[in-house]
Amino acid sequence: MLMPSCAVFTSCCVERESRVTKTESLVLKTATQRLLPPWLCARYGYLSAGMMCARSPYPNESPSSGDSGSALITDDFQQIGLVSFIFSDYPNTPIYTNVSYYYDWITRKSLILYCG
Fold first, then answer.
1. In this protein, which residues make up the domain named Peptidase S1 (predicted)?
2. I want to staple 51 with a disulfide (CB 3.0 to 4.6 A). Which of 44, 47, 55, 83 is the partner?
3. For 11-16+28-115, which CATH class?
């Protein structure tokens, strides 16, 4: 199993929902996130083995409603997670699906889907 190259307490970045209005251009928004150790994530609620959590070092810079499925990427542009959900009591600590945990499953399903 691959391990995220974004070590605990180091920075990652998550894509956020972009909105287009008549006065704005389409701009991909990001939020800096720092992965938290599993024991700390467990304080926020039950997480399965394929989950991880993170928090922004900056106030009001977290994924929000509409950001589910957005990629959590490292500084060297490797995707390590997907925004999964946010506990309503802890809106600044989003929960991510750990992509490396599901690597074998993703590979198998991709082969079936695209290779026949």
1. 11-106
2. 47
3. mainly beta
